[in-house]
Amino acid sequence: MTVQPLVEMRGISKHFGGVVALDDVTVDLYPGEVVGLLGHNGAGKSTLIKILAGAHEPDSGEIRVMGQPVSIDSPRAARAAGIETIFQTLALADNLDAPANLFLGRELRTRWGMLDDDSMEHATRQVLDRLKVRLKSLRMPVGQMSGGQRQAIAIGRAIHFDAKILIMDEPCAALGPQETAMVGDLVKELKRQGIGIFLISHDMHDVFDLADRVTVMKGGRVVGTYRTEDVTQDEVLAMIISGKLPVR
User: Fold this and answer.
1) Phi and psi for 15 in degrees, rounded to 5?
2) What is the pLDDT of residues 8-57, one digit of tens each?
3) Tens digit of pLDDT for each residue in 152-185?
4) Cα separation of 160 and 202, whole Å?
5) Cβ-count burial 132-170 (b if 16+ within 10 Å, e if not)
6) Residues near 50 by beta carbon (within 8 Å), at least 6 away in sequence
7) Which pTM does this prediction carry?
8) What are phi and psi for residue 136, nearest 5 degrees?
9) Residue 140 phi/psi, 5° resolution?
10) Rounded Cα–Cα distance for residues 127 and 119 (Å)
11) Is the N or C terminus of the chain more exposed, i.e. has fewer CB atoms within 10 Å?
């Protein structure tokens, strides 16, 4: 039985004036899989992900979600297609607690128009249980939480609203070893639940720890895509630098 990709980006090209940001790029992502996107600044990985997230529109190419062609012309359209982005900044309101952040801009209200705090707290507890995350208090401002806990809130917000595809931008940047391990556990739990993840990271160790496949980009093109078990970190680094496939 052939597994249907969650996402297929086929022949994606993007120009900014005379600058070629992406040139005929093809990548895909399967359920329960992490694909690491690697490359120096300017390689094209951020532009590619912004197209999937609805921040840019491609000049040419096609995007399919669960086999169906989709037009992603805005972040709202991306969310409607089940695609959510976890930015490095996390886009959390530090002064608000977990439920307020989970429902920020999408608050639940009672039939009298009041904020439904009980329902939002219940839903937040459910989604954190799903991620196997325990907080001492849901009412703690997220600014007082650890980096790993903050990542959990951002991820929880995405999957509560039915995201099937996550884009994670440098999820372990500036985190200590314990918090990095917590994010790793979150990613593994998401994989078990069939969610697909595009992982952008400059840390080769993080990518090899978490990703099933790596796609290396340089100069707006895909150098190659490999299963992490079939390639070494040195070979990937050489591809990032040279833009050429490893010689074996």
Assistant:
1) -115, 145
2) 999 999 999 989 999 999 999 999 999 999 998 889 999 999 999 999 99
3) 898 898 888 889 999 998 887 777 788 888 888 8
4) 28
5) ebebeebeebbeebebbbbbbbbbbbbbbeebbbbbbbb
6) 56
7) 0.90
8) -60, -40
9) -70, 135
10) 12
11) N
Whose tokens are 């912004």? That residue is 50
Q: Which pairs count as long-range contacts for 62-71, CB under 8 Å and 24+ apart, including other chains?
A: 62/8, 62/9, 62/10, 62/11, 63/7, 63/8, 63/9, 63/10, 63/12, 64/5, 64/7, 64/8, 64/10, 65/6, 65/7, 65/165, 66/4, 66/5, 66/6, 67/4, 67/5, 67/8
With 0-12 / 13-18 / 19 or more C-beta atoms within 10 angstroms meaning exposed / middle / buried, residue 116 is middle
How many Å apart are CA 237 and CA 73, to the nearest integer?
34
Q: Which two three-digit tokens encode residue 122?
A: 């219940």
